[in-house]
Specification:
Elements lengths: L34 E9 L3 E8 L5 E8 L7 H14 L10 E6 L3 E7 L6 H5 L6 H20 L2 E2 L8 E3 L5 E3 L6 E2 L21 H5 L5 H18 L9 H10 L10 H10 L10 H4 L3 H4 L25 H7 L19 E6 L3 H14 L5 E6 L2 E5 L5 E9 L5 E10 L2 H16 L7
Antiparallel strand pairs: 1-2, 2-3, 3-5, 4-5, 6-9, 7-8, 10-14, 11-12, 12-13, 13-14
């Protein structure tokens, strides 16, 4: 199995940068016998990105190569990579870079991505500010993609010109979902709490460290992007990072005199330091400056389903990778990193509702104050006496006949639950139903 030799690692290099050169490998020596790998396109702190050609179809792709040895037991980076795979594999929108597949060898991980040959939007705006009409076109495409993500419970949290690419038609594509959050990352207060993002684009409520709405912080970052496109510089900037944060927190910025009154008014809503009164995406679409020439973009039917709408999750190929013992995402990293939560999974030849019934029967038969709370149709939480442990149990359909049962420790001591799971619940789930002669 071939690898790209000499590739350093990165989870956050740009997928593309310049036009490709002649292919470096012949089909018989292609990566995984599938991709002829060519010119190096971009380099980041943890990855290199190459242009490649799909041998079977002739399609150009970008391959992001992450060298496992360079991760240096960086659990946070590993989690970012897993999150990026999980999110990008299920997002399909004309203005979002597609992830076609993820491949791995003993030493490297390969993201096979849509090839977007126009490079970063940042490189284009660095040559000079855009007209309002051109900036509006890019901004409308950005908002279309961000709105699609939000409708599926995905919050990017690192929107900036470096993560926005341009295709051969000059259309925008959002990339780099390594810092994204999903709806199920929201805490009980309904907010996200992880501090992340690029300093000049970070929303003031993130700096306040009191929790934030993922949709609202993405809107703020989109506002910063639009300001850079139309003004040619950042609205909040200072060589001293703390001074810059103070300006962001206070909302101290000035629009240049050449901006139209409608755009200046639009910025007052986009860069409102109060997330409660900051303009929403739905409100944007009614704004006179934004809606000029705007039309909704149709996305593909594939997409993440909001948690509250999901009755039973039918697993796609990426889900199967993440749940299978032999192929799970932790295996991409040679098992060097422990998961942030204790977790066990098993497959069973059973229907989801039957698994739930079996678990409920075991719980009812147990003494010792074990409590059960249903969290969705095929999901529950189990809590031990005095809260000495809390675990979640979720059932996912793998095929018409197979399910995956996942148990995660959410709080307390995992060993307090281990015996009950190993000796009573797991055997009951895996017990095959009796058949009559």
């Amino acid at each position: 199995m071939s690898e790209i030799h000499g590739a350093s690692s990165s989870a956050r290099a740009p997928p593309v940068a310049t036009a490709p050169s002649t292919m470096a490998l012949s089909p018989e020596n292609a990566l995984f016998n599938k991709y002829e790998v060519g010119k190096l396109l971009g380099c980041g702190a943890f990855a290199k990105v190459y242009h490649a050609r799909d041998v079977a179809t002739g399609r150009s792709v970008a391959i992001k190569v992450i060298n496992k040895s360079r991760l240096n037991n960086n659990a946070a980076l590993v989690n970012n990579i897993k999150r990026e795979i999980s999110i990008m594999s299920r997002l399909r929108h004309p203005h979002i870079v597609k992830l076609y597949e993820v491949l791995a060898t003993k030493r490297k991980i390969f993201f096979v991505l849509e090839f977007v040959k126009g490079g970063e939007l940042f490189a284009k705006v660095a040559k000079g500010r855009f007209s309002e009409d051109l900036a509006r076109r890019y901004f409308q495409q950005l908002i279309s993609a961000v709105s699609y993500c939000h409708s599926r419970g995905v919050y990017h949290r690192d929107l900036k010109p470096e993560n926005l690419l341009l295709d051969e038609n000059g259309d925008l594509k959002v990339s780099d979902f390594g810092l994204s959050a999903l709806g199920d990352h929201v805490r009980s207060d309904g907010l996200l709490h992880t501090l992340c993002g690029t300093p000049a684009y970070v929303a003031p409520e993130i700096l306040a460290k009191r929790g934030y709405d993922g949709a609202k912080v993405d809107v703020w970052s989109c506002g910063i992007v639009l300001f850079v496109l139309t003004a040619g510089y950042l609205p909040f900037n200072d060589p001293n990072l703390m001074n810059m944060y103070k300006k962001i927190y206070k909302g101290e910025f000035r629009c240049p005199k050449w901006m139209s009154p409608d755009l200046k008014r639009f910025f007052s809503r986009l860069l409102d330091t109060n997330p409660e009164s900051r303009i929403s995406i739905d409100e944007m679409k009614l704004d006179p400056w934004f809606r000029k020439g705007y039309s909704e973009v149709k996305s593909e039917s594939v997409g993440l389903v909001k948690e509250e709408e999901r009755k039973l999750q039918d697993l796609n190929a990426f889900d199967i990778i993440s749940f299978s013992r032999g192929l799970d995402l932790t295996g991409l990293f040679d098992g060097k990193f422990e998961a942030s939560e204790d977790v066990d999974r098993l497959t069973a030849e059973e229907q989801p509702e039957t698994v739930m019934e079996k678990v409920e029967e075991v719980v009812k038969a147990e003494s010792g104050g074990l409590q059960l709370r249903k969290t969705k149709e095929y999901g529950m939480e189990l809590e031990g006496q005095n809260g000495d442990f809390v675990v979640s149990l979720d059932v996912y359909r793998l095929t018409d006949r197979l399910v995956v049962v996942e148990v995660k420790r959410k709080a307390g001591d995992a060993t307090a639950f281990a015996g009950l799971w190993k000796d009573k619940i797991r055997p009951v789930i895996q017990r095959r139903p009796e058949t009559s002669n």
